[in-house]
């Protein structure tokens, strides 16, 4: 095989790999692990073909060839078996979707209205509205205990100092009730959360995003 064939195969494989790996990155943010594993498999497979074509040309030392083929083969094999694992044992529909009890309920918002020279109704010249930050109330606590499986909780708390204080409350509550908590504090998330509390449950692992200022 000539270098021209290798160039054509590499270009075609690069286009396919880029498309699938970009999709894998996108679905990773949505915690869609099955789709992510499948996209990684189909994205690395064309790269494996390129490596085989390159090896067939016999222009490189065997040590380099074996290292490269071993690396790309491991990536293809690992992603394939993870993907097939989801195929033979599909996750329960209830645990794959975002927990409805946290997503569908409107957040209770604390508001502080201060008025000056008021006489009847809200007629003040200045009205100060609070930050609109959701509270970690008893209803949320109760539904966590009902819906979250005992196991690991990947807690992501999003926002400034006041939001992180609510995150501290959530973390203490989870630990007190027997959950293994791994917390990440994030100032800003892109795209930003659209709900104060959202969860994705997959088996015994729960990803719980707490963004009290989200709307």
Q: What's the SSE blueprint?
A:
Layout: H1 3-29, H2 33-56, H3 62-88, H4 93-96, H5 100-103, H6 138-147, E1 152-158, H7 161-176, E2 180-186, E3 197-202, E4 205-210
Parallel strand pairs: 1-2, 1-4
Antiparallel strand pairs: 3-4
What would a concise description of this structure say?
The protein has 215 residues and is α/β, with parallel strands linked by helices.
Tell me what you see in this structure.
The protein has seven helices and four strands, in the order H-H-H-H-H-H-E-H-E-E-E. The chain has 215 residues and is of the alpha/beta class. A four-stranded mixed β-sheet has the order 2-1-4-3. Helix 1 (3-29) runs antiparallel to helix 2 and helix 2 packs antiparallel against helix 3. The protein is elongated and about 70 Å long. Mean pLDDT is 78; it is low at 92-101 and 103-131.
Oligomer: single chain
Give the overall shape, derived from the CA principal axes.
elongated
Percentage of residues in strands: 5-15%
Q: Whole-Å distance between the termini? A: 59 Å
Q: How do the strands of the widest beta sheet line up side by side?
A: 2-1-4-3
The main pleated sheet reads as: 4 strands, mixed
Helix content: 40-55%
Specify the structural class.
alpha/beta
Calculate the mean pLDDT score and round it: 78
The total strand number stands at: 4
Radius of gyration: 25 Å
Order of helices and strands: HHHHHHEHEEE
Low-confidence stretches: 92-101, 103-131
- The number of helical runs is 7
